[in-house]
TrEMBL record:
Family as reported in the entry's similarity comment: Belongs to the GRAS family.
Gene Ontology, cellular component aspect: nucleus
Name of the protein: Uncharacterized protein
UniProt xrefs under PROSITE patterns: GRAS (PS50985)
Lineage of producing organism: Eukaryota, Viridiplantae, Streptophyta, Embryophyta, Tracheophyta
Alphabetical list of InterPro entries matching this protein: TF_GRAS
Domain of life: Eukaryota
Region (SAW): 155-227
Subcellular location: Nucleus
Main location: nucleus
Residue ranges of the motif LXXLL motif: 49-53
Keyword Lipid biosynthesis set for record: no
Coiled-coil residues: none
Organism of origin: Carpinus fangiana
Length: 228
């Protein structure tokens, strides 16, 4: 992504700097971002923001109690870590926040609910690998990555469970509550899919200002952009 953005900026004659951060989001501070006064700032988070939803919810999972969590009235549990992070980002007044997350609901208290949701989601994911990854080494690497996600979803509880994917509708509630507004995205879905994979089966669908990357009719990833 950094390489492509730098080339795009050069073509437009714009000064541009891309700073990848190899640090867990829970440890990220504003000082690490090296923001300069007067520059236009953009954030990109790809498949990592959901780890901030980790909390010690074992009481809820084991006994069905409310524990210490509270809901904002939309069925979305409040999360201190997420609120603090989005508040920090908003305080820097970024021009855009690009978010890519798995379009799945794995942040559920009951194991059986996570298992059923994961079964449908990863069945579609592995089906897409079957049809589009001819290189065995590359495919094995992808399968191992998804295997670690599945293990986390079904075998871990409390703070140890970090793969807490949520659907786009819940992210809309969280970002809206933090003072962000969605920016409508548009793309030529067919062209983007052909450029990315050249394979049948994938498609991109516009939904509520965001984009859904789907395998046939099953959304796999949600892409959205936000301003404040």
């Amino acid at each position: 992504m950094g390489t492509r953005l730098v080339k795009e900026a050069e073509g437009l004659g714009m000064p541009f700097e891309f700073n990848p951060l190899n640090v867990p989001l829970r440890d990220l501070t504003a000082d690490m971002l090296k923001v300069w006064s007067g520059e236009a700032l953009g954030f990109v988070s790809i498949l990592c923001l959901h780890v901030l939803l980790a909390e010690d919810d074992r009481v809820e999972a084991n006994f069905g109690l409310g524990g210490g969590s509270s809901s904002n009235g939309n069925g979305v549990k409040d999360c201190k870590q997420m609120g603090e992070f989005l508040g920090m980002v908003k305080s820097m007044s970024p021009k855009v926040f690009l978010l890519v997350e798995q379009e799945a609901d794995h942040n559920l208290n009951r194991l059986v609910d996570r298992f059923v949701e994961g079964l449908h989601y990863y069945s579609a994911m592995f089906d897409s690998l079957e049809g589009n990854y001819g290189c065995e080494e590359e495919r094995v690497g992808m399968e191992e990555m998804f295997g670690r996600e599945i293990e986390d979803i079904v075998a871990c509880e409390g703070l140890e469970r970090e793969e807490r994917h949520e659907r786009y509708g819940r992210w809309m509630v969280r970002f809206g509550g933090a003072g962000f507004k969605p920016v409508r995205l548009w793309c030529d879905g067919k062209q983007m899919v052909e450029e990315a994979s050249g394979k049948d089966g994938y498609k991109i669908v516009n939904e509520k200002a965001g984009l859904m990357i789907c395998w046939h009719e099953r959304p796999l990833y949600a892409v959205s952009a936000w301003i404040c």
